[in-house]
Design brief:
Elements: E1 3-10, E2 13-19, H1 24-27, H2 35-43, H3 47-62, E3 70-72, E4 78-80, E5 85-91, E6 94-100, E7 104-110, H4 115-122, H5 138-155, H6 162-165, E8 166-168, E9 177-182, E10 189-198, E11 201-208
Antiparallel strand pairs: 1-2, 2-6, 3-4, 5-6, 7-11, 8-9, 9-10, 10-11
Helix pairs in contact: 4-5
Length: about 210
């Protein structure tokens, strides 16, 4: 069972990370899928995406849930039937689930050099604290992207621009935390951001504080 990480950011939150190593047959052996989930799984053309989908169900089992305990709304956002908040992410060989008593968003991203090329497309104020040569900032850029993705998952609204509406405060890679602001309406919304570097990945999750 390749449970990569199980952590508790606070007393009411659990983060679980799965290393997607097994074949689909193994990952599905003890998983019972609802008809909508089975249809969703069968519609995926990528074997890795199917294994990531099943890895998330393995994480749900570890948390005491089944596939039937989770559903997706019309926008594709996952929800738990017991009222707790859930967020899901996967990237290449890692799948992540976070469950909390408060609204939460999670993102995991493989740290890759190409993030430096697209940095100016999703960064605005952040460019002021990053090095001029963005190729030296791949890890912090990946954390910034992950923070903005996680904020977006919490808010789940159309029309949000990562560059124009979500701003991440300066941070280093040692403190493992920062803040983010969503400036879309008249009253900005504030988020606490926590992050970890896991080998070649950046794991980021956010909680709304206002």
């Amino acid at each position: 069972m390749p449970l990569y990480l199980h952590s508790y950011p606070n007393a009411h939150t659990q983060v679980l990370v799965w290393s997607i190593d097994e074949p689909k047959a193994v990952l599905s052996s003890n998983v019972v899928l609802t008809p909508p989930s089975l249809q969703r799984l069968n519609s995926m053309k990528s074997d890795l995406h199917q294994r990531a989908f099943l890895s998330v169900r393995q994480l749900l089992l570890l948390l005491g849930y089944t596939d039937a305990d989770m559903y997706y709304d019309a926008t594709g956002k996952p929800h738990l039937r017991d009222g707790k908040f859930i967020s899901i992410s996967h990237s290449h060989q890692l799948a992540v689930v976070i469950v909390s008593n408060q609204a939460v968003g999670v993102d995991v991203e493989l740290v890759r050099d190409k993030v430096a090329k697209i940095g100016p497309k999703f960064c605005a104020t952040e460019l002021q604290f990053l090095a001029p040569d963005l190729t030296t900032e791949t890890e912090r850029l990946t954390v910034i992207w992950g923070a903005k993705e996680a904020v977006f998952k919490v808010v789940n609204r159309e029309g949000i621009s990562f560059k124009d509406h979500i701003f991440v405060a300066p941070f280093d890679l040692i403190s493992a935390e920062t803040t983010a602001t969503l400036a879309l309406d008249s009253l900005p919304r504030q988020f606490a951001v926590q992050y970890q570097l896991l080998a070649d990945y950046a794991l980021v999750y956010t909680f709304e504080t206002t």
